[in-house]
């Protein structure tokens, strides 16, 4: 199944690099497409030049604005649907039409196709708003926005959006990958059902293992080697059953996370849902890191319990924890450092935080905390607790107090720490977000702490918020303050591992506890 998922992801990644754009949606607002054929555009030379420049650009569409309003130019601005409470960004100035030559003013602009756009047209005379159009352009599409005068007395205009050349459907690779995956899954299910039929199963075994067939034939004929061949088989089987079993659900979860991680890291076919959100919102790419952290917490619980059960001393286990954490942090700083793009790595531009650094530090805190306060018999239910409903939580109350104390510290720093030039408790991206009122407040207290303690040159220089929100301040998504929440996420994974150990082989109890925890977590998020 993992191979099938990997094949489907590879197919989607390969085809996604060729066709990448959201499909065409119907517009909302005053303007609407009048048809799919080319209209009488005028300005043919400008349009042809724009089309030549536009050829082959991903995530963009060509918009040719035609101004048929005499004696006044137009100012075109746009607002991305992914930019929360942002200012309109100027795109182009469209000159007025030439009445003597009966030639409209034209201007060609490239517009983004990953998210819906709101187009705003204002008159250059008095900055009067003429029309506003909400539309989701399609990749490689060719559009025209025709502005006409409806009534000279009332000075009303019409804004009509015309599709000159339709966009491509970029979701076909995703559909194809899904169909390939479903086909492979159907073949596997059919093969599993056929293998339950004795003649088919015997024929397959005969083709795959002819020596075993010969052994069976010889045993039926009384071969003198029968005893040796039969007696030589059970040992490997006994050895394999005696080996330590793995938690298949955790390995499956880890495998799916790895597939998505590889797909995302290699571009994700340029689909917006395989990219990290600029600030507000959540995509598939944003789930990979929390999944890994949760899996790491569950693995800590299972591995520490196994090592201590097999007789390893706490000092030896602590040494392994320190060494593994050191290696993760060192690899993150020296090997996987994005500041290599700025030139040879030196202390002047060394990025200190990072993904591996946060994973290493989180592993150190959670594993050391578990090792320090773990008590024998807690997972087996030998310890008595006053409340049976919380018997998988109360034995670990010291860990819970420590983690909740960290969360209280995070809340106080996030919402009470005064940040120069920013409102207290600010969580926005800065830049043009929040209507441009706080351009240098990217990340609020979290960004301020990183810049204060680490320095601007030692954190991430090009955060994802710089594209849409046009931020100029460095901001590190793996900064100091956010590590507290990562520790909390890993501890929740640790608690999941405790539930699995406590209710071993009691699948209904495990699922009911997971369901209760899910309801509690979702209710906390909603409230």
UniProtKB/TrEMBL annotation:
Task: Give UniProt keywords alphabetically.
Answer: Membrane, Signal, Transmembrane, Transmembrane helix
**A Pfam family matched in the record:** HGSNAT_cat
Q: List compositional bias (Polar residues) regions by residue number.
A: 220-232
Single biological process term from Gene Ontology: lysosomal transport
Q: Which residues constitute the signal peptide according to the record?
A: 1-25
State the residue spans of region: Disordered: 25-48, 217-237
In the UniProt record, which is one GO cellular component term? lysosomal membrane
What spans are recorded as compositionally biased (Gly residues)?
32-42
Q: Which residues form the Heparan-alpha-glucosaminide N-acetyltransferase catalytic domain?
A: 246-367
The UniProt transmembrane annotation reads 171-194, 253-273, 288-309, 321-340, 355-373, 400-419, 480-503
Database matches in InterPro entries: HGSNAT_cat (IPR012429)
The name this protein carries in UniProt is Heparan-alpha-glucosaminide N-acetyltransferase catalytic domain-containing protein
UniProt source species: Calidris pygmaea (Spoon-billed sandpiper)
């Amino acid at each position: 199944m993992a191979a099938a998922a990997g094949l489907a992801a590879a197919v989607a990644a390969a085809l996604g690099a060729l066709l990448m754009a959201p499909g065409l949606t119907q517009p909302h607002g005053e303007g609407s497409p009048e048809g799919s054929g080319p209209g009488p555009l005028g300005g043919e030379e400008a349009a042809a030049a724009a089309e030549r420049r536009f050829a082959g650009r991903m995530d963009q569409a060509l918009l040719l604005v035609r101004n048929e309003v005499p004696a006044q130019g137009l100012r075109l601005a746009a607002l991305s649907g992914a930019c929360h409470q942002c200012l309109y960004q100027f795109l182009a100035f469209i000159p007025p039409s030439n009445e003597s030559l009966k030639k409209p003013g034209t201007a060609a602009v490239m517009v983004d196709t990953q998210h819906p756009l709101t187009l705003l047209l204002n008159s250059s005379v008095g900055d009067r708003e003429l029309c506003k159009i909400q539309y989701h352009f399609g990749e490689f599409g060719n559009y025209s926005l025709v502005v006409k005068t409806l009534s000279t007395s009332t000075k009303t205009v019409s804004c009509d959006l015309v599709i000159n050349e339709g966009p491509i459907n970029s979701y076909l690779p995703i559909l194809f990958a899904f169909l390939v995956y479903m086909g492979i899954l159907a073949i596997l299910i059919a093969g599993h059902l056929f293998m339950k039929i004795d003649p088919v199963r015997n024929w397959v075994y005969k083709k795959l293992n002819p020596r075993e067939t010969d052994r069976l034939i010889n045993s039926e004929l009384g071969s003198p080697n029968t005893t040796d061949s039969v007696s030589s088989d059970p040992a490997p089987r006994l050895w394999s059953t005696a080996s330590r079993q793995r938690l298949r659900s955790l390995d499956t979860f880890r495998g799916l996370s790895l597939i998505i991680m590889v797909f995302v890291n290699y571009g994700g076919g340029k689909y917006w849902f395989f990219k990290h959100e600029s600030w507000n919102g959540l995509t598939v790419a944003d789930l990979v890191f929390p999944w890994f952290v949760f899996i790491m917490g569950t693995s800590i619980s299972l591995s520490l319990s196994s090592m201590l059960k097999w007789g390893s001393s706490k000092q030896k286990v602590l040494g392994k924890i320190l060494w593994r954490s050191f290696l993760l942090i060192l690899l993150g700083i020296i090997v996987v450092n994005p500041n290599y793009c700025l030139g040879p790595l030196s202390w002047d531009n060394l990025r200190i935080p990072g993904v591996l650094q946060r994973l290493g530090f989180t592993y150190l805190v959670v594993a050391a905390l578990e090792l320090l306060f773990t008590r024998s018999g807690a997972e087996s239910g030998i310890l008595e607790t006053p409340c049976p409903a919380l018997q998988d939580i109360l034995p670990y109350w010291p860990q819970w107090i420590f983690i909740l104390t960290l969360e209280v510290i995070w809340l106080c720093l996030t919402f009470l720490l005064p940040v120069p030039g920013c409102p207290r408790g600010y969580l926005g991206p800065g830049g043009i977000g929040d209507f441009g009122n706080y351009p240098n407040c990217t990340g609020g207290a979290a960004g301020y702490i990183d810049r204060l303690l680490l320095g601007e040159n030692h954190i991430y220089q090009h955060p994802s918020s710089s594209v849409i929100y046009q931020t100029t301040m460095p901001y590190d998504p793996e900064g100091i303050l956010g590590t507290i929440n990562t520790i909390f996420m890993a501890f929740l994974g640790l608690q999941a591992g405790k539930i699995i150990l406590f209710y071993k082989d009691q699948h209904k109890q495990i699922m009911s506890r997971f369901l209760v925890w899910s309801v509690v977590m979702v209710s906390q998020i909603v409230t």
